[in-house]
What does this fold into?
Amino acid sequence: MVAIISIKNLTKEFKTRRKEAGLKGSIKSIFSPSYKLTKAVDNVSFTIKKGEVIGFIGPNGAGKSTTIKMMSGILFPSKGKMDVFGYNPQKQRKDLSFHIGTVFGQKPQLWYHLPAIDTYNLFSKIYELDEKSYRSRLDYLVKLFEVEEIIFQPVRKLSLGQRMRCEIIASLLHGPKVLFLDEPTIGLDLIAKKKIRELLKRLNENEKVTIVLTSHDMDDVEQICNRLIIINEGKIVYDGSTKDIREKYLKYKVIKVTLERQVTSLGLNLLGVKTIENEKYTQTLEVDTSKQPVQKVISQILSKHKISDITVLDPPIEEIIERIFKKEL
Amino acid sequence: MGVKISLKNHLKLLMEYVKISLASAMEYKTSFITQTITMVINDTVWIIFWIIFFNKFNQINGWTVQDMFMLYAVVTFSYGLAGVFFGNRNKIAEVIAEGKLDFYLSLPKNELFHVLISRSSWFSMGDVVFGLIMGIISFSWWQWPLFFVLSLMSMSIIISFGTLAGSLAFFMGNAEESSRNLYMGLISFSTYPLAVFHGAARIILLTIIPAGFVSGIPVELLKNFNLKWFLLSLICSLVFITISIIVFKLGLRRYESGNNMNVRV
It folds into this structure.
């Protein structure tokens, strides 16, 4: 398939003022300001093909959002070349905006005091959609996202999950070919997260919409993205299939157990299980799932100890990146 | 896809925004009505002050209390229009600093125009009403067309000045306070008779802080029309519009966005 987006040597530098601590430092910085150049995005290149679902992941401040914002024409790059549907996002921002949709999890576009339908009507005017096709598009999206009732309620009365579904619809009204989502599941509970993931998946299957999303939630990406770009300190550290990452680096699960009584050791004698933290009542274990199924570990803990809480987690994204660097395995 | 970015479409969008923000204001009817009435009272207090003032002094450098009525007609009407139709005129610094430009930059409309119109300050409606009342007291019928034209020019200067002051945020980061002070400065100076300012102060008010062109000159023109000063006013508003657009565009290249849900500055 053809590449619809190609990014070459993209760099974004931010100039930040450096200041010594305290009032003295503030006064000093007025007379002799010193600046520090930080590279939020550092010489990044990749291409995106039609219909792909790509996850941009990395810790906070890695440069995920900055990259997406440059691709959608919001930020000017310091260096590099971009081609999005044959447009240059910096020079042809308005033309490009008809082909892309953007959802920023932390920046709502819906009018807070009004029902979502009012914002949709306004958006149809902003994109100059003709009334008939707008109505049928809206009907379709409203059914797909299961928000028939709630688009008539003031947005302030909706739950966060409902609101996010309504936000995404707003970005899809003009039928974009690419949807950029920046942290679409931020702050949502598990069920709402799952719902959003399902919808995005369906959208990609039904309409062949290319989806690029950022997240720092490994789960998000694992569930819906077939390709993964991991970015750290502005640089791409991994670009490849999600499957590979899962097989290579997501073989670990972290189990956190809180016990009712204090013990020195859990006394498990299982292959592939490592205690990584041992506090009075809480023990944290790392389980290599290729050697030991998580269920077996849990059932052994349950049979041996009285526990008050247990959680199973994926290793945090920072740790995966660390492992990639160390070329473990 | 053929994309038309015409003035007509932008004006249509302006009307859509007026409708949607009126609908939003109507969600809280009492607050909306209270704000409008408060604004009228606020303006009335000032007029009473000037009536008392001129009772004592009769005139300052040829300005009488009737001139003050005209000045308030122009000032409140043009500030009111700016507030109702271009409600973000004094919030640009905030929009930039809080990364809210992202929204406008992802939509197919002129970003500056879109920012300006996307908010309506409905209590400015009080100013509009007050301006019209002052107009009814002061003007003969033949002065009305000129009044509207001059008010539109004043409005453009106010909006452009607000944009310029707000664009400081692109260049100095934390500029909300300075930009608010500059904007408030323009308002304060334009509510005094131009005749009280001399020398350097007068020159400043006809150039860098164009308060003279917002109110003083329009009043002079409404009293005695003078083509030279009319054209100078027109040039002043066009120059300010152009500079504000250029500065905003230059600033955009430095825009840093940001992901802050709430920032402390």
Observations:
- The radius of gyration of chain B is 19 Å.
- Chain B touches chain A at residues 1, 3-5, 9, 12-13, 16-17, 20, 23-24, 27-28, 99-103, 105-110, 173, 252-257, 259-261 (CB under 8 Å).
- Residues 2-263 of chain B form one domain.
- Confidence is low (pLDDT under 50) at residues 260-265 of chain B.
